[in-house]
């Protein structure tokens, strides 16, 4: 035994043996590692399918080829056709078919030229992977790589690789792309004749394809059908009928049912750089097409006013799934329309669409009750001068009514009380990502569209509000922070519930916000709601940006959220471009496409308490409120302020005058509860609320009680910075200063920088032309009451 071992050792020391051994080891290593990872790395088309797996759209790959991503499913018809035509022993050989290879050699020798390659489907997969030229050496390499491929992959996987990467003529790669490009259908819906036509194409794709040598293609297709018949794969009737089917004349355009969603998917993919470039979306094709038709119909009307763009989103509330995504109209033939721009994901001024969020936030924090009166008077805050859309004022308006009527001044007053910094943070938590500047950059304008939002995120927030209400009973009064999330267009596995005691906004405050949004009698332009009558209960909000650049409408039901945006992508404003006029009609038409919800949002009783509320002020009933009602409010309402405007007043026996102890005996006084608004609020409130009674004046022999100054400056406020307007002829105009007095008909004497400039009674307005610089305005009434304010006139030329 020992001599034999010694002999082997000596043999392996010989150079020839060492070289042979090294070569064998190198070949073994090459064989083990000859397959590249991945086998195919060519860029693929971006493809989106609807929720049923039907094609919505696709884009050409980066290298100019129609190449759909790898599909591990191969239709049985294609399997039978390609095996019968290319590799009849595919299921049995190890990757190399010696019989077929020998036959090919004999044919080539007999004809004197290469007429057959003898390659198996496995070898063709390797040639497609390596892209080597057709040489004898490369053919040998393909044989070994095919053997290695068969060792690592199943026959099904190899066939899928072939089907996904074989050339089908022109710039079409893969069965899926070929099926859609040549027949306008997916491969699972092709007939035997159509599938046979595709199966013969990879054999010589540059010579024969639809649009080129169609007679040769027809002949090859029929020969394959005959072969399938002889092999018993199809019967004679099927073969004859299939032979009568025409072959396609030229490639057809792929569906473009959701082009902007395809564009969105491409952008999202490039950000992530992972996953396949084909996805199954949550889009419902029928609804998508109907929504697109509605937008096109409205566009035909809107374009007469040079309003070129309109977009819409439909969401499922429960999942946040996008059921329809129309990023714009589709008019690629007219570049001026800019219809390629996806407005669903474009930051735009949201107008008033954030007001429901502020209303709910203030109720959530106990700052107001649902119907608390909010001041609606001319307002200037640090140079910011908000105005209502109709340029009128109510003096004071219930918060719910301010929301349903979308009044701007009360919204700014509410944000001033809530603090814009807190609202900014709350918006971020709710899912807003478009506020790129710090809170101070936006200030109070944030509530009127001073920031930017997208239709995508706004509809997501509204869906989150509905989701919280839907889940309140389901989660037994607890909250899931994940209920606020962006919409999705592909469904991901559900995350594990993480319920918390408190939510971003409690269900009670959200309930009242949606109740205000459902209010149907909307004054002013919003009485147009009657045009949109629907069998559905819908909570909805419109928005219009400054300069009439954006019109918004977003609606909520327990099942769906619909959002519509109207405007011009270049930001051009147009007269009449308001949410109620342009976006709301489309919103309600889209809702008519959706199944009506059987139930409405339930009041979250576990979140509510019943308290006594002042009917006139909407605040918690105070000591002197004698007209009250019981109302369910969120628990935070317990810390809301008591009514600040009811007070006890002392009247003369005939109740015509106010009196004090200095002029009337206490036993003769009539003590009465009185609803008294501040002078500026009262000035406007009494003109629209005839049931409001102004306080009687003080009896002449009485000194006024310390109930505060009966006079108030409405404009300008302290430290205001103002401009003097220019007239149409370019000359300097005048500024109208405005005051209110509790006592009707009393005279007010006006002084500018201690110089008398005039007097007023009944209507306290003066028009002045102060020079640029700092000034002091002083008012004195006939009773000697005085108020003054400092302001600065800015020079527009500086």
TrEMBL record:
GO terms for cellular component: outer membrane-bounded periplasmic space. InterPro entries: Beta-lactam/transpept-like (IPR012338), Glyco_trans_51 (IPR001264), Glycosyltr_51/Transpeptidase (IPR050396), Lysozyme-like_dom_sf (IPR023346), PBP_1c (IPR011815), PBP_C (IPR009647), PBP_transglycosylase (IPR036950), PCN-bd_Tpept (IPR001460). One of its GO terms (molecular function) is peptidoglycan glycosyltransferase activity. It comes from the Bacteria. GO terms for biological process: peptidoglycan biosynthetic process; proteolysis. Pathway: Cell wall biogenesis; peptidoglycan biosynthesis. Residues 706-791 form the Penicillin-binding C-terminal domain. Keywords: Carboxypeptidase, Glycosyltransferase, Hydrolase, Multifunctional enzyme, Protease, Transferase. The keyword Glycosyltransferase applies. It holds the Pfam family BiPBP_C. Its EC number is 2.4.99.28. Residues 72-228 form the Glycosyl transferase family domain. The keyword Glycosyltransferase applies. Residues 311-434 form the Penicillin-binding protein transpeptidase domain. It catalyses: [GlcNAc-(1->4)-Mur2Ac(oyl-L-Ala-gamma-D-Glu-L-Lys-D-Ala-D-Ala)](n)-di-trans,octa-cis-undecaprenyl diphosphate + beta-D-GlcNAc-(1->4)-Mur2Ac(oyl-L-Ala-gamma-D-Glu-L-Lys-D-Ala-D-Ala)-di-trans,octa-cis-undecaprenyl diphosphate = [GlcNAc-(1->4)-Mur2Ac(oyl-L-Ala-gamma-D-Glu-L-Lys-D-Ala-D-Ala)](n+1)-di-trans,octa-cis-undecaprenyl diphosphate + di-trans,octa-cis-undecaprenyl diphosphate + H(+). In the C-terminal section; belongs to the transpeptidase family. In the N-terminal section; belongs to the glycosyltransferase 51 family. This is peptidoglycan glycosyltransferase. It comes from Mucilaginibacter gilvus. The lineage of its organism: Bacteria, Pseudomonadati, Bacteroidota, Sphingobacteriia, Sphingobacteriales.
């Amino acid at each position: 035994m020992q001599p034999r071992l010694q002999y082997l050792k000596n043999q392996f020391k010989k150079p020839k043996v060492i070289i042979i051994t090294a070569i064998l080891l190198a070949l073994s290593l090459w064989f083990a590692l000859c397959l590249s990872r991945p086998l195919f790395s060519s860029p693929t088309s971006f493809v989106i399918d609807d929720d049923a797996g039907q094609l919505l759209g696709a884009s050409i790959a980066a290298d100019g080829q129609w190449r759909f991503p790898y599909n591990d499913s191969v239709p049985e018809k294609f399997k039978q056709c390609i095996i019968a035509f290319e590799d009849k022993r595919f299921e049995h050989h190890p990757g190399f078919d010696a019989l077929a290879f020998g036959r090919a050699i004999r044919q080539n020798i007999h004809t004197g030229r290469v007429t057959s390659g003898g390659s198996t489907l496995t070898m063709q997969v390797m040639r497609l992977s390596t892209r080597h030229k057709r040489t004898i050496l490369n053919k040998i390499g393909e044989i070994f790589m095919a053997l290695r491929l068969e060792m690592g992959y199943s026959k099904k996987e190899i066939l899928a690789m072939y089907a996904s990467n074989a050339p089908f003529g022109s710039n079409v790669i893969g069965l899926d792309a070929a099926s859609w490009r040549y027949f306008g259908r997916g491969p699972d819906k092709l007939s035997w004749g159509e599938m046979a036509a595709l199966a013969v194409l990879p054999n010589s794709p540059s010579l024969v394809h639809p649009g080129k040598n169609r007679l040769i293609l027809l002949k090859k297709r029929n020969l394959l059908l005959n072969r399938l018949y002889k092999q018993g794969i199809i019967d004679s009737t099927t073969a004859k009928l299939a032979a009568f089917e025409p072959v396609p004349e030229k490639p057809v355009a792929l569906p473009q049912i959701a082009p902007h969603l395809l564009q969105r998917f491409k952008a999202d993919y490039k950000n992530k750089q992972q996953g396949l470039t084909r996805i199954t979306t949550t889009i419902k094709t029928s609804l998508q097409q109907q929504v697109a038709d509605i937008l096109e119909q409205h566009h035909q009307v809107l374009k007469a006013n040079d309003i070129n763009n309109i977009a819409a989103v439909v969401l499922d509330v429960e999942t946040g799934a996008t059921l329809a995504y129309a990023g714009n109209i589709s008019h690629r033939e007219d570049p001026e329309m800019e219809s390629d721009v996806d407005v669903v994901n474009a930051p735009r001024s949201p107008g008033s669409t954030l007001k429901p969020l502020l209303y709910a936030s203030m109720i959530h924090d106990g700052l107001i009750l649902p119907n608390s009166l909010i001041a609606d008077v001319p307002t200037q805050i640090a140079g910011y001068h908000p105005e209502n859309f109709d340029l009128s004022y109510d003096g004071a308006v219930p918060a719910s009514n301010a929301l349903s009527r979308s009044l701007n001044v009360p919204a700014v007053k509410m944000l001033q009380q809530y603090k814009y910094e807190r609202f900014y943070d709350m918006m971020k938590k709710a899912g807003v990502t478009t506020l790129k500047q710090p809170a101070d950059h936006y200030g109070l304008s944030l509530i009127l569209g001073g920031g930017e939002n997208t239709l995508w995120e706004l509809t997501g927030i509204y869906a989150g509000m509905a989701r919280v209400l839907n889940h309140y009973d389901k989660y037994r009064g607890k909250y899931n922070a994940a209920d606020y999330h962006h919409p999705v267009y592909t469904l991901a596995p559900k995350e594990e519930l993480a319920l918390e005691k408190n939510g971003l906004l409690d269900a009670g405050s959200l309930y009242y916000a949606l109740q205000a949004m459902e209010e149907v009698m909307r004054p002013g332009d919003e009485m147009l709601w009657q045009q949109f009558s629907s069998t559905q209960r819908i909570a909805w909000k419109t928005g219009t940006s400054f300069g009439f650049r954006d019109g918004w409408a977003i609606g909520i039901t327990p099942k769906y959220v619909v959002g519509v945006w109207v405007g011009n992508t270049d930001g051009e404003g147009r007269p009449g471009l308001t949410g109620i006029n342009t976006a709301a009609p489309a919103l309600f038409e889209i809702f008519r496409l959706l199944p009506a919800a059987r139930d409405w949002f339930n009041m979250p009783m576990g979140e509510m308490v019943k308290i006594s509320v002042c009917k006139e002020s909407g605040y918690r009933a105070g000591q002197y409120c004698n007209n009250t009602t019981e109302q369910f409010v969120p628990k935070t309402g317990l810390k809301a302020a008591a009514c600040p405007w009811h007070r006890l007043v002392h009247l003369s026996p005939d109740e015509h005058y106010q009196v004090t102890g200095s002029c009337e005996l206490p036993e003769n006084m009539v003590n009465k509860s009185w609803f008294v608004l501040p002078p500026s609020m009262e000035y406007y409130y009494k003109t629209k609320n005839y049931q409001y009674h102004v306080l009687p004046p003080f009896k002449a022999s009485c000194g006024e009680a310390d109930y505060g100054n009966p006079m108030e400056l409405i404009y300008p406020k302290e430290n205001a910075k103002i401009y003097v307007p220019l007239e149409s002829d370019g000359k300097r105009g005048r500024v109208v200063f405005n005051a209110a007095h509790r006592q009707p008909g009393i005279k007010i004497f006006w002084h500018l920088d201690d110089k008398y400039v005039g007097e007023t009674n009944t209507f306290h307005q003066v028009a002045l032309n102060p020079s640029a610089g700092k000034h002091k305005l002083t008012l004195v009434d006939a009773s000697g009451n005085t108020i003054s304010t400092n302001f600065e006139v800015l020079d527009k030329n500086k």
